[in-house]
Specification:
Blueprint lengths: L2 H6 L4 H16 L4 H14 L3 H15 L4 H5 L5 H13 L2 H53 L8 H37 L3 H8 L4 H20 L4 H8 L5 H15 L5 H4 L7 H8 L4 H26 L1 H30 L1
Length: 344
């Protein structure tokens, strides 16, 4: 396929999932994969959706010629979703597998959204308070002080003026530095593998990256095992789709399995999953009971991980709210002292 056409098939993750959900609905209605692709193509052409129509057309032609579904979806969907399509077609459980994968994706999205909502709100309020401090120190207070009949000296006023001057000179640099350090920290959390990493994790660092990797590994392994894939094949299929950190733990699990470890809790005890999740797996037993136990654990692991992360980030949230309250009190004190000086 020409490079230009391949570029036309690059679309957002949201649109990919919308297309997948619509495709699942056609399959639920009793259509075959070929009939569903044809119906999707016709409806997309009717409403002028070029990307959706092109993708459905490629899938239709692929299925019509008898080629694997993954060859028609290549360059259209992300690799993880492609793997799910391929496995579903091979195991003749496409609809059930897509629904399970979609549910787990929604759970992970809700988990990320709830965690970031806890962080973004105080950060947004802090940004507003810092903006108010900058405006007060650069415009509001100097104009009022210029009308004072006698010089006004108070520690709160001096602190606001000095802080506003620092924000004016170094605010943008500090913000860019903080964003850069945060991106570097996230990159380390996904790629850095070293003995020091495990020591830092015990101190609470890289907790978010570890937690999200644990949720992803637990849910994806449970999904593949539930749809008749062996544990060895599940670990092998997931390694190319994972980041280096999660891939390291998947490789450790594969090594434990190769050494003859039978119990699922021992295979997955690589330092990625929390003791609470491992405890649930240990109580699930062996063989089929272990698969059902892993599935139940996967359905509840996002809630467990969320509670754990919220307990860990209380110190950061307390620090943010403490800074916000201190700045607000400082602004009120400086404003009050200025108004008292003008009224005298």
């Amino acid at each position: 396929m020409p490079a230009k056409s391949s570029l036309l098939l690059r679309w957002s993750t949201t649109r990919q999932w919308q297309w997948v959900e619509d495709y699942c609905l056609w399959l639920e209605d009793g259509c075959s994969p070929l009939q569903a692709a044809q119906a999707m193509c016709l409806s997309a052409q009717q409403y002028g959706l070029a990307a959706e129509a092109r993708m459905a057309e490629r899938l239709y032609q692929c299925l019509r010629s008898g080629r694997p579904m993954i060859s028609g979806l290549k360059d259209c969907l992300n690799p993880e979703l492609l793997q799910v399509f391929a496995l579903g077609q091979q195991s003749d459980c496409l609809t059930d597998l897509l629904h399970g994968y979609r549910d787990f994706q929604r759970r992970r999205y809700q988990l990320q959204l709830s965690l970031w909502r806890q962080r973004l709100y105080p950060m947004f309020v802090l940004a507003l308070v810092l903006t108010a401090t900058l405006a007060a120190g650069q415009s509001y207070l100097p104009r009022l002080l210029a009308h004072a009949t006698v010089p006004v000296e108070h520690w709160s006023i001096n602190v606001v003026l000095s802080l506003a001057e620092l924000l004016m000179q170094w605010g943008v640099v500090s913000l860019c530095t903080a964003v850069g350090l945060w991106l570097f920290y996230r990159w380390l959390g996904r790629h850095w593998i070293a003995p020091w990493r495990w020591r830092l994790e015990r101190l609470g660092l890289f907790g978010y990256q570890r937690a999200m990797s644990a949720v992803w590994v637990t849910q994806m392994v449970a999904l593949l095992l539930r749809h008749r894939l062996s544990l060895q094949d599940s670990l092998r299929r997931l390694q190319p789709l994972s980041n280096p950190y999660a891939g390291y733990h998947l490789q450790c699990m594969a090594n434990r399995l190769a050494r003859g470890e039978q119990h699922l809790s021992q295979v997955m005890s690589t330092g990625l999953l929390t003791p609470e999740l491992l405890f649930r797996l240990h109580n699930s037993g062996h063989n089929g009971a272990a698969v059902d136990g892993l599935w139940r654990t996967a359905l509840r692991c996002d809630t467990s991980i969320r509670r754990q992360l919220l307990r860990r980030q209380w110190l950061t949230l307390a620090l943010l709210y403490g800074v916000i309250v201190a700045l607000l009190l400082l602004l009120l004190q400086a404003g009050g002292q200025t108004m008292m000086a003008l009224l005298q």
